[in-house]
Amino acid sequence: MRAVELALVLVYMFACVGIAVWANARVRGSQDDYWVANRRVGTFANSWAMMSALASGGSVLGLLGLAYVMGIPYVLAMFAGAAAGFPLAAVLVARRLRQMQVLTVTEFFTRRFPETPALGWLVPILIVLCMGTYIVAQLKAAGLAAVYVLGIPYGWAVAICALIFILYVSVGGMWAVTVTDVLQGMLVFLMVAALAALALYHFGGPAPLLTGATLQKPGLGVLSPELGLHSYLGAFVLWLLAASVSPHLVMRVFTARNVASARAALNYAVLLYSLMVLAALFALAPAAELLFATLEAADADTVFLRLVEHFLPAALGGLAVAAVLAAVMSTTDALLLAASSALTHDLFRRLRPRAGARELYRVSLISVWVVGLLALAFAFEPPALLTLLYSAAIGLLGAGLFMPLIAGIWWRRARGRGALAGMVGGAALYLWLTWASSLPVLTPILFALPFSALLTWAVSWIRGTAGRAAPAVPPDPGEDLDRPESLSGAERRVLACLAALTFLTFVLVGVDASLWGLSLFAYSMGALMLSVPLVSLYLFRIER
Fold this sequence. Notes:
By secondary structure, the protein is mainly alpha-helical. It has helices spanning 3-27, 31-36, 43-54, 57-70, 72-100, 105-112, 118-150, 154-203, 206-216, 229-240, 242-245, 247-255, 259-291, 303-311, 314-351, 357-379, 386-410, 416-436, 445-464, 489-507, 520-543, and strands spanning 514-515, 518-519.
C-alpha cells in the first residue's frame, strides 16, 4: 500500500462526497435543479465540465493503452472525430434543444413525435443499455487506479470506487456533478500536461522521443495496412456523432444559461480536450513504447500508471492517480445521471404521470443505485482495451439516434414512424455487424448510419403521403411551428469549414510522408482537432 498516494486520493474522494452533501440542499425539491442545475451554469464552468465528461478513464488510461496496441494514427482518428463532433453538435443540435427547454433527449422525441408513443419507451431503454456499457469501462479504469494505490485485489478496488461514485451522484444531482467535474477537469488536464512535459524533458524533446519510439516500433506512427482506411474512417465517424447523441454530453447543453453560452462551452471544451489528448499521444505514448516495450497487450491499459510511477515522486504520483480517478468520476457521474434521467424522467413518469417532485427525487436516487450496481456486476470481469469497449456503446447510440434526431430538428416532414424505423433499423444493423460479421472494430457505423437515414427518410415519406407532415421544431420560441428550419450564415460557414478540413485530412492518407516517424495523416488529424473549435468560435463570435 502506498501511504502518500492513498492519503491524497482519500482527501479527494471525501471532498467529492462533501460537495454532494452541499448540493443536496439545492436539488432535493426541484427536478430542474437535480437534472439540469436549473439551467444556470455559465460558459467557464460548462466548458470544463463538458471537457471533463468527455475526458473519461478511456482518455487517460484507455487512450495510451490503445495507442500502444493499435498505433497513434488510429487513436487520433477516434479523438479527432470527437473533437470535430462538438462544433457539429453546436450547429445541428445545441440551439434547437436548448430553446425547447427539454430535460432529456427522450423528451425531445416525445414532444416532436407525439403520434409515436413507442419512441418514449425505446429511446430511454437504448440510452440505459449504452450508458451502462460505458459505465462498465469507467469502473474498470477506476479499479486499475485503485489497485495501484491500495494494493488490494481488483474486485475490492472497483467495488469501493463504484460505491463512492454512486453515493455522491445520487445525493447531489447535476449541481454536484457540475462542481466536481470542473475541479476534476482541471486536475486531469494539469496532470497529463505535467507528465507529458516531464517525458519530453527526459528524452530531449519531441524529435528524439518520436524518432526513437517509431524506430523501435515502426507501426506506432503509421497507418496499419491490416486495418485499412475504412477502420480509420469508421473510428472518426463514430466519435463524430458522440457529442450530438450521448446523453451525458447533451445534458450539459440543457444546463447552459442560453444558446450562445452552450455553443461557446462546446467549442472551448473540445479545445481543452484536444490539447490534453495531443499531449498524451505525442509525448506519453512514445515514451511508453521506449520504456515498456515488452508490455503485454492485456496490460496496455496500465501504461499511464506505469509512467506515473516512473516519472513522479510519491506526492505527485498521488495527484496523478487522483487525476485518473477524477477522469473516471467526471464521466461516470454524468453517465449515471443520464441513465437515471432516462429511467426516472422518461420511463417512470410515463407510468405515473402525476408523480410529485419528492417521489421523483426518491425514484431518481433508487435508479442511480440500480444502474451503478448493475454496471459494477459486469465490471468485475471486463474486456481488455477500455476505449474500444465504450466506443462500441457510443456507436450503438449514434447508429440508432443520430439520424432520427437530426431529421426531427431539421426536416419538417419527418414523421414519428420514420424516426422509429431509423432508430430500430440502425441500432439492429450495428449490433448484427458488430457481433456476426468480420468487419474491423468500429467500422459497422459506416453501414448502420446510412441505413438509419434511409429508413427515416423512406418511412417518413411514405407516411407523409397519407396526410399533413408533423410540425417542425420552431427556430425561436413563439414562431410558427410550420416554419421550416434554416441554417444561419455562421452555421453554414462552420459546417463548410468542418467538411473541408475533414476532407483534406483524409486526402492526406494517400501521401507517403512522415516526420520523426509519424505519418502526415497523424499530424493532419492533430491539426484538425485544434483548428475546428477555433474556427467555430471565431465564426460564431463574428455573427454575434
